[in-house]
Write a structure and sequence with these properties.
3 strands, three-stranded antiparallel β-sheet, 11% strand, 71 residues
Length: 71
Amino acid sequence: MNNKYLKTDFEGLVKDPSSGAVLNVDNAKLEAYKKQKNAMSMTLNNNERIVKVENDLKEIKEMLNQLLQRN
């Protein structure tokens, strides 16, 4: 940790006295957070794709039923 920063009550966080900004200096936790956020984003994207496929299948079934009813 750089001596120009002040310690805080929270592990991994320091305060810059000139700007008052609170900075995260724990790179391992930052990387873990980024991985977790990316995994959550992928899960949400997959869920959206599943819903879209389900809706497309429903639409195809409805079209097939309409074709069968015409004959």
